[in-house]
Fold this protein.
Amino acid sequence: MLVDPDKTLTAPPPATPPLIAPQLTAPRLTAPRFLGSRPDGSRPAPQKSLVVPATNVLVDMAHYKDVPPGLQPSSQPVDMEALKKIPPFSRLPVGLFPTCLQGPFPPVIHCGLPITDEQMKKLLRNCDYRSFVPQFDSYGVSSVAAATIGKYIMGRTSYFVDIARVLNVGGNDRILSFGDNYVLYRREKLLPTKETLQKLLELLELPATIKPKWYLSCVYYAWGDSPYPGLFC
């Protein structure tokens, strides 16, 4: 077989890899979950009273038939005093989970157990709280003390909790929060098991028959146009 010396065998050029569009991940809720202060020590301003403009948003009110009238989406200004009178929910209505793909989106509602100042002081004594930051200030328990309580409970139960400020707890305005309707609906966190719940009740010295309830946030208490409350505030 004759080979033409003027022709050389060369490897074909490498194939150009196809262009792949970058994968965009959904934003996550990054607002501080304690419920009283930001990492820099400043206090979050109360949420503006967002309302649903009746002329711009079509709302199927049948979806909210199980939601108390004072908490349904409305074009009327938010009545804070009326919100405080809404009893905590033993079971959260479906209309208060962020199930819709577009607004209006529900207020933030925490699931958890009430916790008093005395209970928090006892937990801080149990964990030997040591910090130059006082346990309490004019707003209630400090962010450092609240984080210490959460860490102590985590060590005792292997379950993470927050100290949340809410509107309708009655008496005190704090609860031991297991998560809110956004975090729990997206399964970014799970509710405690029965065994873990019993451990939490024992730490708070509450009866074993107490059940968690759903409480309205005192910061993000109004219907809004963002599926991630607090992210763009």
Summary: The chain has five helices and six strands. Helices lie at 80-84, 117-126, 143-157, 181-185, 194-203.
